[in-house]
Amino acid sequence: MKESRGFTLVELLIVLAIISALLSTVTPYAVRTLAKAKATQVALNFRSLQVALLEYYITETPASTVDLNTLYAKRYISSRPENYIINWATSTSDVARAYVIYTNTDVDLNLVENSFQQIVYMSTYTGKDGAYIPDTINVSEGPVKGYYPALIVSVPRF
Protein backbone atom coordinates (compact mmCIF):
# COMPACT_ATOMS: atom_id res chain seq x y z
CA MET A 1 0.00 0.00 0.00
CA LYS A 2 1.07 3.48 -0.79
CA GLU A 3 1.41 5.82 2.16
CA SER A 4 -0.34 9.19 1.86
CA ARG A 5 1.79 12.21 2.73
CA GLY A 6 -0.84 14.96 2.49
CA PHE A 7 -2.98 16.78 0.02
CA THR A 8 -2.11 17.25 -3.60
CA LEU A 9 -1.88 20.66 -5.19
CA VAL A 10 -5.07 20.03 -7.19
CA GLU A 11 -7.02 19.18 -4.03
CA LEU A 12 -5.83 22.36 -2.31
CA LEU A 13 -6.76 24.48 -5.35
CA ILE A 14 -10.25 22.95 -5.44
CA VAL A 15 -10.79 23.72 -1.75
CA LEU A 16 -9.58 27.31 -2.26
CA ALA A 17 -11.91 27.72 -5.25
CA ILE A 18 -14.90 26.51 -3.22
CA ILE A 19 -14.08 28.84 -0.30
CA SER A 20 -13.64 31.85 -2.60
CA ALA A 21 -16.93 31.07 -4.37
CA LEU A 22 -18.74 30.95 -1.03
CA LEU A 23 -17.15 34.21 0.14
CA SER A 24 -18.02 35.99 -3.10
CA THR A 25 -21.70 35.12 -2.69
CA VAL A 26 -21.92 35.99 1.02
CA THR A 27 -19.88 39.24 1.06
CA PRO A 28 -22.40 41.50 -0.78
CA TYR A 29 -25.18 40.48 1.61
CA ALA A 30 -22.97 41.13 4.62
CA VAL A 31 -21.91 44.56 3.33
CA ARG A 32 -25.53 45.52 2.55
CA THR A 33 -26.65 44.38 6.00
CA LEU A 34 -23.93 46.43 7.68
CA ALA A 35 -24.94 49.52 5.67
CA LYS A 36 -28.59 49.06 6.70
CA ALA A 37 -27.56 48.63 10.34
CA LYS A 38 -25.50 51.82 10.24
CA ALA A 39 -28.39 53.75 8.67
CA THR A 40 -30.79 52.42 11.29
CA GLN A 41 -28.38 53.50 14.04
CA VAL A 42 -28.22 57.02 12.58
CA ALA A 43 -32.03 57.16 12.41
CA LEU A 44 -32.34 55.94 16.02
CA ASN A 45 -29.82 58.53 17.19
CA PHE A 46 -31.81 61.25 15.42
CA ARG A 47 -35.01 60.05 17.10
CA SER A 48 -33.33 59.94 20.54
CA LEU A 49 -31.89 63.43 20.11
CA GLN A 50 -35.24 64.76 18.90
CA VAL A 51 -37.03 63.38 21.97
CA ALA A 52 -34.28 64.60 24.32
CA LEU A 53 -34.35 68.09 22.82
CA LEU A 54 -38.12 68.37 23.12
CA GLU A 55 -38.09 66.96 26.65
CA TYR A 56 -35.36 69.41 27.65
CA TYR A 57 -37.35 72.37 26.37
CA ILE A 58 -40.56 71.21 28.02
CA THR A 59 -38.85 70.58 31.37
CA GLU A 60 -36.27 73.35 31.55
CA THR A 61 -37.81 76.11 29.38
CA PRO A 62 -34.40 77.64 28.59
CA ALA A 63 -33.97 81.05 27.04
CA SER A 64 -30.83 80.11 25.13
CA THR A 65 -29.80 77.40 22.73
CA VAL A 66 -28.82 73.86 23.64
CA ASP A 67 -26.06 71.48 22.56
CA LEU A 68 -25.25 67.81 23.03
CA ASN A 69 -23.07 68.46 26.08
CA THR A 70 -25.99 70.12 27.87
CA LEU A 71 -28.35 67.24 27.04
CA TYR A 72 -25.76 64.73 28.26
CA ALA A 73 -24.86 66.67 31.42
CA LYS A 74 -28.50 66.99 32.43
CA ARG A 75 -29.09 63.29 31.66
CA TYR A 76 -31.56 63.74 28.80
CA ILE A 77 -29.40 61.36 26.78
CA SER A 78 -27.53 58.43 28.30
CA SER A 79 -24.51 58.67 26.02
CA ARG A 80 -23.18 61.39 23.77
CA PRO A 81 -23.31 60.16 20.16
CA GLU A 82 -20.16 60.84 18.15
CA ASN A 83 -20.26 63.09 15.07
CA TYR A 84 -23.65 64.64 15.79
CA ILE A 85 -24.18 68.39 15.98
CA ILE A 86 -27.17 70.45 17.07
CA ASN A 87 -27.36 73.87 15.46
CA TRP A 88 -29.98 76.44 16.24
CA ALA A 89 -31.73 77.86 13.25
CA THR A 90 -33.76 81.00 12.89
CA SER A 91 -37.20 80.38 11.57
CA THR A 92 -39.78 82.76 10.21
CA SER A 93 -42.32 81.29 12.63
CA ASP A 94 -42.96 83.14 15.89
CA VAL A 95 -44.58 80.02 17.25
CA ALA A 96 -41.56 77.72 17.30
CA ARG A 97 -37.79 77.72 17.53
CA ALA A 98 -36.09 75.45 15.00
CA TYR A 99 -33.03 73.28 15.49
CA VAL A 100 -31.15 71.27 12.92
CA ILE A 101 -29.51 68.06 14.11
CA TYR A 102 -27.06 66.61 11.63
CA THR A 103 -24.24 64.14 11.45
CA ASN A 104 -21.26 63.70 9.18
CA THR A 105 -21.35 59.93 9.59
CA ASP A 106 -20.62 58.20 6.29
CA VAL A 107 -23.95 56.54 5.59
CA ASP A 108 -26.25 55.93 2.63
CA LEU A 109 -28.77 58.76 2.80
CA ASN A 110 -31.52 56.74 1.13
CA LEU A 111 -31.25 54.00 3.75
CA VAL A 112 -31.52 56.56 6.55
CA GLU A 113 -34.54 58.15 4.91
CA ASN A 114 -36.20 54.73 4.59
CA SER A 115 -35.63 54.13 8.32
CA PHE A 116 -36.90 57.51 9.51
CA GLN A 117 -39.26 59.48 7.28
CA GLN A 118 -38.61 62.89 8.87
CA ILE A 119 -34.98 62.96 7.71
CA VAL A 120 -34.01 65.65 5.23
CA TYR A 121 -30.76 66.02 3.32
CA MET A 122 -28.60 68.89 4.35
CA SER A 123 -25.95 69.91 1.88
CA THR A 124 -23.26 72.50 1.59
CA TYR A 125 -23.65 72.19 -2.18
CA THR A 126 -26.36 74.36 -3.70
CA GLY A 127 -28.57 73.39 -6.58
CA LYS A 128 -28.33 69.63 -6.04
CA ASP A 129 -31.49 67.56 -6.27
CA GLY A 130 -32.76 66.09 -3.03
CA ALA A 131 -30.46 68.08 -0.75
CA TYR A 132 -32.09 70.91 1.09
CA ILE A 133 -32.91 72.71 4.23
CA PRO A 134 -36.20 74.59 3.88
CA ASP A 135 -35.88 78.23 2.86
CA THR A 136 -37.58 79.39 6.05
CA ILE A 137 -34.66 78.11 8.13
CA ASN A 138 -31.18 79.64 8.23
CA VAL A 139 -28.65 77.35 9.88
CA SER A 140 -26.39 79.12 12.37
CA GLU A 141 -23.26 77.17 11.51
CA GLY A 142 -23.04 75.06 8.38
CA PRO A 143 -21.13 71.79 8.13
CA VAL A 144 -18.08 71.25 5.99
CA LYS A 145 -18.48 70.08 2.39
CA GLY A 146 -20.77 67.16 1.69
CA TYR A 147 -24.24 65.76 1.99
CA TYR A 148 -25.51 65.01 5.47
CA PRO A 149 -28.61 63.39 6.88
CA ALA A 150 -30.30 65.99 9.07
CA LEU A 151 -33.39 66.39 11.20
CA ILE A 152 -35.26 69.62 11.77
CA VAL A 153 -36.79 69.88 15.23
CA SER A 154 -39.30 72.62 15.94
CA VAL A 155 -39.58 73.49 19.60
CA PRO A 156 -42.66 75.49 20.64
CA ARG A 157 -41.91 78.92 22.10
CA PHE A 158 -43.28 79.37 25.59
How would you portray this structure in words?
By secondary structure, the protein is an alpha+beta fold. It has one domain (9-156). Helices cover 41% and strands 21% of the residues. It has helices at residues 9-60, 68-73, 109-115, and strands at residues 84-91, 96-103, 120-123, 137-139, 147-156. A five-stranded antiparallel sheet has the order 3-5-2-1-4, covered by helices on one side. Helix 1 crosses helix 3. The N and C termini lie far apart (94 Å). Residues 124-132 have low confidence and may be disordered.
Q: Which geometry do the CA atoms define?
A: elongated
Termini separation: 94 Å
- Looking at how many chains there are and whether they match, the oligomeric state comes to single chain
Largest sheet: 5 strands, antiparallel
Low-confidence stretches: 124-132
Order of helices and strands: HHEEHEEE
**Alpha-beta classification:** alpha+beta
Beta strand count: 5
- Count up the helices: 3
How many domains make up the 3D coordinates? 1
With strands numbered from the N-terminus, the spatial order across the biggest sheet is 3-5-2-1-4
Mean model confidence by pLDDT: 76
The helix content is 40-55%
From the alpha-carbon coordinates, what is the Rg to the nearest angstrom?
Answer: 24 Å
Strand content: 15-25%
Chart the SSEs and their pairings.
Layout (H helix, E strand, L loop, with lengths): L8 H52 L7 H6 L10 E8 L4 E8 L5 H7 L4 E4 L13 E3 L7 E10 L2
Antiparallel strand pairs: 1-2, 1-4, 2-5, 3-5
Quick overview:
The chain is an alpha+beta fold and 158 residues long.
